[in-house]
Design brief:
Chain lengths: 153, 252
């Protein structure tokens, strides 16, 4: 077996091209689910699933394999890491900004939910459940736009 | 019972609880009374299926005979399932399904919290992930229970009947058997005697906010954990397992 001639930094750069299938403006790095990349006889990418039943988990795993294969890495293993569990705290600052521009209010810790359109915090929750398990439906009382809020977990 | 065998049996109990409850909830997809509840129900079912998958994978590793998640879910017969009788009970009306999940989640949260402190690393990782989801489910169920119980006289009476009917299935949760004791001894697993008062406290608190009364502890049904089920599980499995039974090994 031939050791892979590639740096960890390079692999991370390629992984930045892999989108989250539910919120495609976010990469899996923005989302904070890439825990580690180990180089050895083969490359092992450690991924943390967001929710136990997240239907995106398998899509993400196959996207990672496909992306790395395009760069000539065809012996890649995926490891699922449960501990420490993924929480919304793992979403990067850049990821939060991209989410806001995309029209989803990022998870708000110890502060009120702000409308991604007009930044008003005068918003009301319409439904605790949105289009995916991780989001709730909100409405801004100032600009009157409905928006989705990525729940804290 | 050897320690490994007990941990395997316990893993299947946990997995079967979540899979069978999820299957009941999946039966309600597109039949919920409002859109928000439709999404909540489907999302919760998905959480339970995800949890079941992790547990079946672990069971396959523990057993070491090459059985996959699908083999455990679709190729076992009724008597091999070890879920609580509570979770296999039919959906009935909205209040019945709600009470079933409420009573189970109130127990499962404490079971997971105990597993998050046990000496088996895989259980610890699993429980740390799952407990966050189940706390959320329990909060949701509790809100609904208060809304129905403290709603109209009609909703109050109906949900009280749901609670009275489901109560007989709660005793089994705390009836320790050889497997429970072995898991408690060998991996410092959940102590059911410790969980019972915590469950009781949490359940009573919500029941009282919902202006409902706590049913009396009369006769309790049991047997699910040992594979002796009510007549309802067979029908559930017949539907759930149909495809793999008709086309063994089918995949997509």
């Amino acid at each position: 077996m031939v050791a892979v001639d590639v740096s960890r930094e390079q692999v991370f750069k390629w992984l930045a091209n892999v989108p989250d299938p539910e919120i495609p403006v976010l990469s899996i790095l923005d989302l904070g689910i890439v825990r580690d990349v180990e180089l050895g006889d083969r490359i092992t990418v450690s991924l943390a699933p967001t929710y136990s039943g997240c239907p995106a988990t398998e899509v993400i795993e196959s996207s990672v394999l496909r992306e790395l294969e395009q760069h000539g890495l065809d012996d890649v293993a995926i490891r699922r890491v449960l501990s420490p569990p993924w929480t919304t705290d793992w979403i990067s600052e850049a990821g939060r900004e991209k989410m806001r521009q995309y029209g989803i209010a990022p998870p708000a810790v110890n502060k009120p939910v702000a409308c991604p359109q007009c930044e008003s915090t005068n918003a009301e929750r319409v439904s605790e459940f949105g289009s995916t398990a991780c989001k709730a439906a909100y409405r801004c009382r100032d600009c009157l736009e409905p928006f989705e809020y990525f729940k804290c977990l | 019972m050897s320690n490994d065998k007990a941990v395997l049996a316990y893993t299947l109990r946990l997995a079967d609880n979540t899979l069978i409850l999820a299957q009941r909830m999946v039966e309600l997809v597109a039949a919920e009374p409002e859109l928000e509840e439709e999404l909540a129900n489907a999302n919760f079912a998905l959480d339970y299926i995800g949890q079941a998958r992790m547990l079946y994978s672990y069971a396959g590793e523990l057993e070491g005979k090459g059985r996959s998640e699908d083999d455990f879910a679709f190729m076992r017969d009724e008597h091999e399932f070890a879920n609580l009788l509570l979770v296999e009970q039919p959906n009935g009306h909205f209040g019945d399904a709600l009470i079933r999940q409420f009573l189970f989640d109130a127990f499962y949260v404490h079971q997971l919290e105990a597993l998050a402190r046990c000496s088996d690393a895989r259980f610890r990782e699993f429980a740390a992930r799952a407990v966050k989801e189940v706390r959320y489910h329990l909060r949701h169920c509790s809100q609904w229970l208060v809304r129905l119980g403290d709603g109209t006289q009609f909703s109050h009476d109906r949900v009280q009947t749901s609670l009275d009917d489901a109560w007989r299935y709660t005793g089994e949760m705390f009836a320790s058997d050889e497997t429970d004791r072995a898991v408690q001894d060998c991996i410092n697993g959940p102590d059911l005697e410790e969980i019972r008062p915590l469950w009781r406290r949490d359940v009573e608190e919500v029941i009282s906010r919902a202006t409902l009364s706590v049913p009396s502890d009369d006769w309790m049904a049991s047997g699910g954990k040992q594979g002796r089920h009510s007549e309802y599980l067979g029908y559930l499995l017949a539907e759930m397992q149909y495809l793999q039974r008709s086309f063994p090994g089918a995949s997509w």
